[in-house]
User: What shape does this take?
Amino acid sequence: MKLGVYLLLYVLILPASVLPRAENPSRDPWQRFNGKSQVELKANPPVAANSDSEASQTKSRFVTINGTRLHFVIKGAGRPVVLIHGNPGSSQDWTRLFSPLAAQHKIIAFDRPGHGRSQRPKHEEATVEVQARLLHDALTQLHVQRPVLVGHSWGGALALVYAINYSKEVAGLVLVAPAVYESQDGVSFLTKLPAVPVIGDAVNFVLTPLFGASVVRRDLKKAFAPDPVPRNYLRSVLSEWTRPSKVKSYAVDDALLTDCLKKFSPRYSEIRVPVSILAGDSDLIVPEKENAERLHKAMPGSRFVLLPKSGHEIPFTRPQAVIEAIGYVTSSS
Assistant: This one.
């Protein structure tokens, strides 16, 4: 009886942070920009653009690191800027930034391991530190040197871990609504349940599709508040996030984040590269006082911008603020 109650409660309050993003291996969503763009990189080839025309295209590519196949999109030429999405999410979450940023930079957006079209590591747990290592090795294989890292939400923690572990290989950080200190928000027995054998599978593959759409609508409204959810985005995620194939990855990411923050948050002050922190004063997902503002105080010399009447989804709702933050960091490094 208790097990049935736990399962029902889980489905009814399942947060959007652990709902699945669909993966369709037969169709690359970035092909609408360039129908011939999907490439599998091998033998460490350079990926620099060969012409202005090539640089203006958004390319979809894959790179394999220690048996893990990672997907990324790339556009532009110049100083590299790497975009790291939250949980859940994918490289598509940065679409409003690609064209304006690519006018001056080489923009690279990865699907984190287990997200979008990227694989989850098969032989090790994909902790934040492991994901930072995979990203580092991927960028090395792509011949990307000293990028500016831009991390949104969960991706902010990954960017900080990367900067700590590879301190000489980062030019700067832009942290957007970063989730970088321990919190019980969205992390509980119920949100960890998808990682539990048998029970988690039952929830993922039987119950989640029944309730997913209503939960997605509710939690996206919360994430975008006080702005409305873009209709096209809502339509896209409703068709994608009601598939349960990625639920376990997202739930495990949430669960692993807590241990990461315990280990690395005392070391944020070690980071010496230029840092710009953005937060919304109306963020209902990651409270800015407990994260962005606290991080600013822990990192002497960092720049902190509090955006009025703004929520959590700043890359969608305030893209110009992100562009300006990147400009600040690149001009300071």
Notes: Residues 10 and 190 are 5 Å apart (CA to CA). Strands lie at 39-41, 59-65, 68-75, 79-84, 105-110, 148-152, 172-176, 275-280, 303-307.
